[in-house]
Every structure is written in C-alpha cells, then in structure tokens.
Amino acid sequence: MGFDISKIMLPSVGVDMVFNINSLAPYCRPSIIYDINVANTSIIIAQPHIPFLKDTNFKELHLTTIIQDKNRKIRLGVTCRQFKIINHFALANNTKVQAVLLSYELPVKETNIRGGFRLLLNAKHLVKGKLRYKNFEYYTSREFSIKDISLSGLSLVIPKKTNNKPNPLCEIKINEHIMIGIILINTNQGTPVGVLSIKTQVVRINTNNSRTYALVGLKILNLGNKNETLLNRFIHDAQIDDLKTLSRRN
After folding, report:
1. One Pfam family, short name please (predicted)?
2. Which of 61, 112, 120, 160 has the fewest CB atoms within 10 Å of its CB?
C-alpha cells in the first residue's frame, strides 16, 4: 500500500522530528507544518523549542506524523537529508516567524519510533528519583539529576564533586546494571503522574562533557506494561503541551 504525502503532511499538522532513529539514543522534537511543496520535495516546519542551528548535525532525520488508517492509528514518516533555517517566514496573516525548510525523500513509510520520544525535562515536567549503586542510595538534586527520558532509556547528569568530595557515581562503568526508582511529576497536578522502579544498564559515559559534570546514558531493561503505559502517557502529555505552546507562539 502506498501513502500520498500530499494527503498526510498538510499545513497545520503536528509532526515529530526523530533524530538518529537507529542509534542507542534517538531523540524527538515536536513541531507543526507551515507549508509543503511536493514538486521540489520540501516541507517547511516551525522552528522547534530546541532550535535547528547552522551547525546542527545528525546521522538520520525522519519527519513523522500519526494518521487514522482504517481501524488503527499508525505513524508515517519520510527521511530528510538537508535543512535550511528561515529566519523570517511569512504566515498567512503576514506575521514573520522562524521556520525550517526540510528536503525529504519518498516513499512515505510506516515508522516505529517508540524509543525516539526522548523528553527533555523542564520546569513543568520533572523526573525525580533515587538509584542504588554498590549498596548505597543516591538522590536527584544531590548526587545526580535526570536530563531526559524515553521509553528506552534516560540520561543522567552527575556532578564530579558533591560537598567538595569526589562523587561516588563517577565510578559507574559501562555495562553495569543499576536499579533506579523515579517519580514522574507534572507540576500542574497535585499528585505524581506515576512512580516507577526500573532496572537499567549503563550504555554510554561522557566524562568530558564539562569540567564539573559527567553524562551517563542508561538503557531501560524491564519497563513492563504498566510502567510503559505510565511513562508513555507522561511523555505524550508533555509533547502535547509543547505543540500547544508552539501553536500559541506562532
């Protein structure tokens, strides 16, 4: 079955840009479509909250959206190879906004990006937690913080020193298994969205990120159906908020 892009990627449709979909750490940025030119295979989208810059680079980029197909919803996408930043794109009401022109390649394909929804946490959507390492417990805002989260993993920011002493979490090694408990928080709600206990594996470590912090990437090993539902809803609601903010801004 073929999909007609001119009937799918329409102006005002919400889209998700998925970066490096086949890597260990895919991530996603929501946006909306401003315009599409089928003749020259290009789409203009709103500049996302975390913007494209001239030096933005990626191995893969897919532009995706969700449609209703008979009895189910499916996510469809196209591969994008190049982008161009438009600083003053004119909307229908002559308002000038920032936008991004993407060059795409057909065909439109069904795309599975469950692990690509990597939510960058902010003041409204927070994740607090504690982890156990070498029989000791460590807590967010003290020994580490959670930078982002997806259905497949999360990233930790670890200060190299706490209270002027070396942080024991900087001893974490690749492939080690770590138990972590997290609390999903939407600050507009009176109670947490959910509390999860998950087993993770260390898949990447960057000690050169800065002089004071290290970055650690964890792969989730045993999310389970109930926890997956909670986390998926948390990420989805946060993305909907992002799209609403984009719509109001533009």
Report:
1. PilZ
2. 112
